Amino acid sequence: EAAVTQSPRNKVTVTGGNVTLSCRQTNSHNYMYWYRQDTGHGLRLIHYSYGAGNLQIGDVPDGYKATRTTQEDFFLLLELASPSQTSLYFCASSDAGDQDTQYFGPGTRLLVL
Amino acid sequence: GDSVTQTEGQVALSEEDFLTIHCNYSASGYPALFWYVQYPGEGPQFLFRASRDKEKGSSRGFEATYDKGTTSFHLRKASVQESDSAVYYCALVRGSALGRLHFGAGTQLIVIP
Q1: What is the DSSP string of B63-101?
Q2: Rounded-to-integer distance, Cα A20 and Cα A76, Å
Q3: In sequence order, which residues have a C-beta less than 8 Å from that of residue B37 and are 6 or more positions away?
Q4: Which of B87, B103, B108 is most worth mutating to test chain A (most A CB atoms within 10 A of its CB)?
Q5: Which of A19, A20, A49 is nearest to A34 (CA)?
Q6: Is the four-CA dihedral B24, B25, B30, B36 of positive or negative sign?
Q7: Number of neighbours of residue A13 by Cβ within 10 angstroms
Q8: Chain A residue numbers touching B49 (CB-CB < 8 A)
Q9: Nearest Cα residue to A32 out of A110, A108, A90
Q10: CA–CA gap between residue B56 and residue B73 (Å, rounded)
C-alpha cells in the first residue's frame, strides 16, 4: 500500500504570509495531487502532476502554486496567504495504470489569521 | 461542468440498521463512479468503483449500482456497525480526464451503538 506523508500537520500563518506544504510518497507513483477540503464542498482539486517537473492546473488553482521536484516530492506554495485559504489540505498519489485509485496522506490543517 | 450531489449532509443510525446514502451525478459522456471513505483524523480511502451502467461495485459490505437512467450511484449497507462511522464521498471521473476526480460534499455517517 502506498505511503503518503505530509508536513507540517498543522500550520498557522498571518494574512500575506508565505507557506509551503510538503508531500512525499514512497511507492513510486507517477501521479500526485493537492486537494483542499472544506465543509459543504468536499474535496476540491488544486493542482496535480504526472511526474517530476510536470504541473497541471486543477479546479481551484487561484492563489496557489505547486512544484514537483522529484517523483516522490510535491509541494504546494501559498505566496500571499489569505484567510479564505484556511482549510484542510490533502495530498494524494496514484499509479499511472490506475489513476483514479488515489492514496491520500493524513492532511495538513492550515489556519490563516 | 461535472458535478456530484450528495443530498444528506449527515445520517444517524443505530447499529444493525440499513444504510442508504444518496449520490446523483451530472457529467457528459460515460463517467466512472467511485465511493471513498474518510475515518476521523485520516485521509480519504478508496472504497470501490463502477464504470458501466448496471455494474455493481462493492467492498467491506458496502455496495452501489451504477444507474445511468437515474444518474445515480447510491451507497447501501445491510447492517451498519459503530466502526462504519465516517464521512463517505461519492466521486466521478470522465474517461478523458483520468485522475481528475470530482467529489461530492460528503455525507457523515454516525452509528450509535
Answers
A1: EEE-BTTTTB--EEESS--GGG-EEEEEEEE-TTSTT--
A2: 6
A3: B44, B45, B47, B86, B87, B88, B89
A4: B103
A5: A49
A6: negative
A7: 16
A8: 100-101
A9: A90
A10: 9
| Contacting B residues, span 1-40, partner chain A, CB-CB under 8 Å | 4, 6, 9, 32, 34
Per-residue confidence in pLDDT tens, chain B, 113 aa: 889 999 999 999 999 999 999 999 999 888 999 999 999 999 999 999 999 999 999 999 999 999 999 999 999 999 999 999 999 999 999 876 677 899 999 999 999 99
Chain B: give the shortest CA distance to residue A28, in Å. Answer: 16
DSSP3 helix / strand / coil % (chain A, rounded to 5): 5, 55, 40
All three cell numbers of B23, joined, read: 449520490
Across the interface, of A90, A99, A103, the residue whose CB is closest to B99 is A99
**Chain A: residues touching B (Cβ < 8 Å):** 4, 31, 33, 40-45, 48, 58-59, 90, 92, 94, 99-107
